[in-house]
Each structure stands twice: as structure tokens, then as C-alpha cells.
Structure prediction request, 156 residues.
Amino acid sequence: MLCDLAAKSLNLTFYSHEIRSPPNATVLSAVGTGAGNLSAAGWGTFIMADNPERVSEVPSSKQIGRSTSLGALTSSQGSGGGIFSISKITFNEAWAKYNKSTITFTGTFALPNRPYEIIVLGGTGYFRDARGFALAPPGLTTLPVYTTKWEVFLTK
Prediction:
């Protein structure tokens, strides 16, 4: 039996739009030091996020999905030591080819290490059996929206 060993490469670019302050916050400090106050977050704090993913840095650009994340400040240095995170991005019908497909990431978002380099654990739907990595440099920020550019490199 012959197997096709040629890997298929795929590169995606999209943008997370995060709001860190009420009343429309998409990220919050849920448990631990500074619970409910991101600027007071310290070691042991858990952070939850539910951010829209868009085609550009412009907050009104087409939404192509949502990312949900759980992060923890796992270093006694607090946020300076980074936030260990696991995130899942679910794409919607606006990106028809990937509708209802997901990609799951994990890694540490450490402030001095930009762009962040994140591991792709896998995916569902179109991204089943995908592996790779993502680079996530900060994008243009217009408060209250913080933008992160995701450059995803996959093989299947």
C-alpha cells in the first residue's frame, strides 16, 4: 500500500480584537490576585477571554470567528513572566471554507518576547490533523480595543 507523504501547507492571517475594560470587556481576570481587575492581576490569576476574530485590524472589519481562551499567570513574576494560555478559535460562515472548523493553540504570552510564538495543537473540521505554529505580534491598538495579528502556519 502506498501512502501520500506530501504535506499540505496552509498560512492564515487574522486579527483578535480584545477589550479589557467594562462595559463591553471581552477579557477578564476571573480568579486570583486582582480578580475582576486586569491591571492588578498577579501570580495565580486566571484570565478568561472571548474575543472576535476579524479580517483586519479595523474593529468594524468582517468577523470571521471567535476565540475563547483560558490563561493563567504561572510565574511569581506576575504578568512580566507571561500568561500561559490555551485558546480555541472557531471560524464562522464568513470564512465559508472553514465554517465551524477550529484551531487550538497553547503557549506563553510573555511581554518581552514579541512576536509571541504559539504551538498549534490541532483542530477540527477542515483543520483536523493540522499541526504547526502561530506568530502573534501586537497589532495597531486604538483604545479600548487591543489588536493582535495572528499569522498561522499549518501542515496537514
Remarks:
- The mean pLDDT is 88.
- Strands lie at 9-19, 27-31, 46-54, 63-72, 83-91, 102-109, 116-124, 131-136, 145-155.
- The domain at 9-36+44-54+64-155 is CATH 2.40.480.10 (AOC barrel-like).
